[in-house]
């Protein structure tokens, strides 16, 4: 079982005694920077000149400097820019400012796990990753609660990396909820697998295949949309609140029976064998290599896939139907 850490296990004064740079001010960056500041930590935000996030961070009372200035001033540097640009930001703005005993922090292990960033041996390399989007992390903190975090130490140059990471997690409210110890390898590989096989890839392919099956059989796309996409939220909310058992308690006995007899016919042994192959490609680094090459080539395939799905009947049908649902907010 996982080891859990709470407020009493973490010493906030450790991070309060350091100078923290938060590079990036997006979903995670804003939550970390604001909550650390409110926890009495000396924070500066690192953003390039001309970045649109600059004004927002300044309006919220934070001091903004360039990423290189932030890294030079600080002795704890949290990199919260998008994963595919982290190695460039590291090379250009961070590497030359690392001193003995500094700490390099991440919110996801991708660049360390696959070797796109190779820190020197004299710095701590830690991860504090909230298990939720940044806006929830910040809102929970402001309400006196927190989002559970996972914490890892890849390189412990000072011998105090874990205490430092726990202290940082306390500064963003994580230890109020509970912190689980992991490794960069476990976090990165499970995160990629989850988003590919289940959460994003698996779920959207399941929805599309179900929708296409109904439409190809002559049913109206609007009805197929409700059955295969819209109602999924209700099911997922029930699972989120009480696992498979709460979902099965809530749906009809007929739906529950269909779950037992048909689920395994749709997600078969062949699907699971393919999932194992997907996991293998994550573990051996071939997925990461292919994705970084795609990113560096200017995202040709990525845009091709994106455009094809944007024109799918599922999407065009949904766009019209959601106009009938005043409670569904759609930000264009
Ligand atoms: P984001 O896309 O929301 O924000 C990125 C920020 O980086 C923006 O402020 C952008 O202006 C800035 N930026 C972009 N290029 C830059 C550059 N070259 N130099 C400096 N700043 C630059 O990113 P995010 O979703 O907060 O992700 C940050 C990290 O947190 C990633 O490692 C991600 O895997 C991890 N993470 C994200 C979530 C989440 O819910 N979004 C959850 C857990 C972990
Ligand atoms: Mg420094
Ligand atoms: Mg994840
Ligand atoms: Mg991810
Ligand atoms: Mg139904």
TrEMBL record:
Mg(2+) 2 binds at residues 191, 227, 231. Residues 2-182 form the KARI N-terminal Rossmann domain. NADP(+) binds at residues 25-28, 51, 53, 134. Mg(2+) 1 binds at residues 191, 195. SUPFAM superfamilies: 6-phosphogluconate dehydrogenase C-terminal domain-like (SSF48179), NAD(P)-binding Rossmann-fold domains (SSF51735). Substrate binds at residue 252. GO terms for biological process: isoleucine biosynthetic process; L-valine biosynthetic process. InterPro entries: 6-PGluconate_DH-like_C_sf (IPR008927), KARI (IPR013023), KARI_C (IPR000506), KARI_N (IPR013116), KARI_prok (IPR014359), NAD(P)-bd_dom_sf (IPR036291). Residues 183-328 form the KARI C-terminal knotted domain. One of its GO terms (cellular component) is cytosol. One of its GO terms (molecular function) is NADP binding. It is an enzyme of class 1 (oxidoreductase). Binds 2 magnesium ions per subunit. Keywords: Amino-acid biosynthesis, Branched-chain amino acid biosynthesis, Isomerase, Magnesium, Metal-binding, NADP, Oxidoreductase. Its EC number is 1.1.1.86. The active site is at 108. Its cofactor is Mg(2+). It catalyses: (2R)-2,3-dihydroxy-3-methylbutanoate + NADP(+) = (2S)-2-acetolactate + NADPH + H(+); (2R,3R)-2,3-dihydroxy-3-methylpentanoate + NADP(+) = (S)-2-ethyl-2-hydroxy-3-oxobutanoate + NADPH + H(+). Belongs to the ketol-acid reductoisomerase family. Involved in the biosynthesis of branched-chain amino acids (BCAA). Catalyzes an alkyl-migration followed by a ketol-acid reduction of (S)-2-acetolactate (S2AL) to yield (R)-2,3-dihydroxy-isovalerate. In the isomerase reaction, S2AL is rearranged via a Mg-dependent methyl migration to produce 3-hydroxy-3-methyl-2-ketobutyrate (HMKB). In the reductase reaction, this 2-ketoacid undergoes a metal-dependent reduction by NADPH to yield (R)-2,3-dihydroxy-isovalerate. This is Ketol-acid reductoisomerase (NADP(+)). It comes from Streptomyces aidingensis.
């Amino acid at each position: 079982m996982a080891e859990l850490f709470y407020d009493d296990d973490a010493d906030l004064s450790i991070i309060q005694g350091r100078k923290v740079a938060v590079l990036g001010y997006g979903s995670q960056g804003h939550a970390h920077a604001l909550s650390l500041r409110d926890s009495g930590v000396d924070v500066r935000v690192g953003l390039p000149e001309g970045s649109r996030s600059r004004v927002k961070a300044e309006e919220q009372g934070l001091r903004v400097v360039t990423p290189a200035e932030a890294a030079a001033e600080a002795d704890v540097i949290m990199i919260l820019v998008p994963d595919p640009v982290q190695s460039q930001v590291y090379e250009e703005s961070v590497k030359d400012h690392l001193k003995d005993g500094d700490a390099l922090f991440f919110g996801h292990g991708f660049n360390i796990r696959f070797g796109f960033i190779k820190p020197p041996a004299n710095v701590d390399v830690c991860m504090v990753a909230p298990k939720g989007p940044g806006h929830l992390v910040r809102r929970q903190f402001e309400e006196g609660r927190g989002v559970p975090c996972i914490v890892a130490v890849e390189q412990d140059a000072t011998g105090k990396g874990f205490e430092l990471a726990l202290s940082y997690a306390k500064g963003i409210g994580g230890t109020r909820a509970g912190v689980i110890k992991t490794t960069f390898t476990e976090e990165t590989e499970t995160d990629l697998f989850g988003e590919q096989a289940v959460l994003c890839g698996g779920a959207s392919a399941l929805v599309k295949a179900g929708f296409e099956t109904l439409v190809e059989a002559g049913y109206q796309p609007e009805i197929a949309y409700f059955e295969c996409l819209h109602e999924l939220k209700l099911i997922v909310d029930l699972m989120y609140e009480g696992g498979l058992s709460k979902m099965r308690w809530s749906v009809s006995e007929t739906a529950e029976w269909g779950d037992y007899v048909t689920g395994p016919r749709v997600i078969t042994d062949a699907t699971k064998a393919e999932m194992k192959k997907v996991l293998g490609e994550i573990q051996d680094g071939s997925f990461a290599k292919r994705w970084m090459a795609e990113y560096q080539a200017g995202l040709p395939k990525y845009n091709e896939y994106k455009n094809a799905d944007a024109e799918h009947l599922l999407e065009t049908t949904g766009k019209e139907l959601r106009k009938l649902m005043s409670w569904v907010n759609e930000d264009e």
